[in-house]
């Protein structure tokens, strides 16, 4: 079991959601968040350099079995990029899930995902 986490621009959420549905990935969690990477690395205010602010982002978490990891990544890559790619398009992280338990049924492991 894996957890695919994508941090994307808010304006790309609908595109990514549609691409995931087309890839038969329907179970996702979406959270609003803020962050900063390389975009906006230097800001000047009244002649002095100041710490850059945080930008609105969207975090998508997808808990899935191994066979859905690459389709999820491909769908996100195809739909989250602005044109040929811009700073701030986002990142995808893939991490291992040690255990998953469905609260409603008590199912454990792959069946719970």
Features:
113 residues, alpha+beta, Alpha-Beta Plaits, 4-stranded antiparallel β-sheet, two-stranded antiparallel sheet, 6 strands, elongated
Describe this structure in words.
By secondary structure, the chain is of the alpha+beta class. It has one domain: Alpha-Beta Plaits. The protein is 19% helix and 33% strand. It is built from two helices and six strands; from the N terminus they run E-H-E-E-E-E-H-E. The chain has helices at 13-22, 69-80; strands at 2-8, 29-35, 43-45, 48-50, 55-64, 90-96. It has a four-stranded antiparallel β-sheet with strand order 2-5-1-6, covered by helices on one side. A two-stranded antiparallel sheet has the order 3-4. Helix 1 packs antiparallel against helix 2. The longest helix has 12 residues, at 69-80. The model has no long low-confidence stretch (mean pLDDT 89).
The side-by-side strand order for the widest beta sheet comes to 2-5-1-6
CATH architectural grouping? 2-Layer Sandwich
If helices are DSSP runs of H or I spanning 4 or more residues, what is the number of helices?
2
Helix coverage percent of residues?
Answer: 10-25%
Contiguous uncertain segments of 5+ residues: none
- The assigned structural class equals alpha+beta
Overall geometry comes to: elongated
Report the C-alpha radius of gyration, rounded.
17 Å
CA-CA gap between termini: 8 Å
By CATH, the topology is Alpha-Beta Plaits
How much of the polypeptide forms β-strand, as a percent range? 25-35%
How many beta-strand segments?
Answer: 6
Q: How many domains comprise the coordinates?
A: 1
Rounded mean pLDDT is: 89
Q: Main β-sheet: number of strands, strand sense, barrel status? A: 4 strands, antiparallel
């Amino acid at each position: 079991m894996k957890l695919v986490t994508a941090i994307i621009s808010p304006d790309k959420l609908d595109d990514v959601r549609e691409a995931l549905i087309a890839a038969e990935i329907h179970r996702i969690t979406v959270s609003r968040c803020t962050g900063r990477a390389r975009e906006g690395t230097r800001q000047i205010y009244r002649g002095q350099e100041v710490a850059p602010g945080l930008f609105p982002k969207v975090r998508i978490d997808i808990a899935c079995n191994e066979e859905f990891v690459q389709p999820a990544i491909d769908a996100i890559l195809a739909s989250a990029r602005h044109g040929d790619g811009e700073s701030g398009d986002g990142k995808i992280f893939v991490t291992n899930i040690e255990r998953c338990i469905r609260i409603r049924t008590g199912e454990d492991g792959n069946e719970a995902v």
